[in-house]
Amino acid sequence: MTPLLQVRGIEKRYGARIGCTGVSFDLYPGEVMGIVGESGSGKSTLLSCLAGHLAPDQGQVIFDTRAKGPVDTVTMAEPERRMLARTDWAFVHQNPRDGLRMGVSAGGNVGERLMAVGARNYGQIRSSAEDWLGRVEIAADRIDDRPAAFSGGMQQRLQIARNLVTGPRLVFMDEPTGGLDVSVQARLLDLLRGLVRRLGLSAVIVTHDLAVVRLLADRLMVMKGGLVVETGLTDQVLDDPQHAYTQLLVSSVLQV
Amino acid sequence: MTDPVTDPVIHLEGVAKTFTLHNQGSAVIPVMEGAELSVHAGECVGLIGASGAGKSTLMRMIWGNYLAAAGTILVAGTDVAKAEPREILALRRGRLGYVSQFLRVVPRVPTLDVVAEPLLVLGVPEAEARARAADLLARLRIPERLWSLSPTTFSGGEQQRVNIARGFAHTCPALLLDEPTASLDAANRETVLGLIEEAKARGAAIIGIFHDEAARSRVCDRVVNVSDFTPKAA
């Protein structure tokens, strides 16, 4: 089986400071990988490099494209990479305001991504938008409301609908449940798990919440100071951590 | 050549385990060495030994959430001690089941879905998976009115029965049971022992930890004392 994503030696520096360095891994179709670490560990920098929001200084991010097979997205032409970002990739931001257009209706937010890949039939766009709002448990009568009128949890679910409507194969998530209260988090986790299973999505999830990765991620990567200090099966890394930093991280948490 | 009829489903050889506590003066604690174990299809082996002897540690190494320091842990064709995470995940999806003492689920998910999930992951149609889940929950005497609620609010014994239902939902060729009858009343204990006997009859290879001696002697064909694998003091 060809990995969906092959990451090779990714490095990003901010001047003399290291953002992240020497990161390599393979992600297979249907796999969910969690990246954990404290603030400043380089996990968000890495995610930005993987998703093409930041240009890494070194390394390759090879994605198995539908048309041409594995292609390095770092050296790919900008229009091609943007097309990937609109079709096969999705990016769920921590703050839904970064991933939504706040002045456009909920239905419009979902429909816009379809139009960006060439959908033109208004009736079909609206019915896809309705279908997706339903899947993320947003009532159909809210379709014409703007996201500004939604709660934080609803905004996050709307952002997920907007991202998944084009049937991506790879989803990048940056603290998808951060900033939500616990019961809303649970609802979102349930939703994400169901979607990952039913759609066979692969995902890379950055979070500092070990309980979230325990429930969502198959595999785990632990980062500290821009380096990957430990990788493995999620429950193995959490139950039998090998690296000093991971042991500290796991023992510092109340109940994971 | 491997022979599915005579080769063991679970086979451990030379398995060792050490814990290194980096944040406590890098203390290295050897807890197990030279562990050997073979379980054939249709057989149930009980792990015995004093508390702290390493029964759960050995079971966790077989499940793959503890890393073995040495040795081979062959389970239904996969060497857990050396396998890639995705190989272990594939093993857990289809061939290796585990009933742990703790129920870990996403809050808010209905009990019926929690139990059906291992089948849904394997692509079993939803109606069929739910029917199987409902059958198990009914056998384990979880009242139907609770099936639509999340098990996170259930009592300890109810949670344990949900965990057992989940563990038995898919008919795995290899099964790990950590204290499956602890804290169950007589009727439910009987049901669980019945489930274990059915699993053996269909050819599952089972490793169990039972503090309940009567249960152990009823379902286990033999026992292995994990104290035999305790490293000798140098």
From TrEMBL, chain A:
Pfam families to which the protein is assigned, alphabetical: ABC_tran
Chaperone is among the record's keywords: no
Keyword annotations of the record: ATP-binding, Lyase, Nucleotide-binding
GO molecular function: ATP binding; ATP hydrolysis activity; lyase activity
Any GO BP annotation: organic phosphonate catabolic process
Highest rank taxon of the organism: Bacteria
Xref: PROSITE patterns: ABC_TRANSPORTER_1, ABC_TRANSPORTER_2
Residues annotated as domain ABC transporter: 5-250
SUPFAM superfamilies tied to this protein: P-loop containing nucleoside triphosphate hydrolases (SSF52540)
CDD domains: ABC_NikE_OppD_transporters
Protein name: Phosphonate C-P lyase system protein PhnK
Species name: Frigidibacter albus
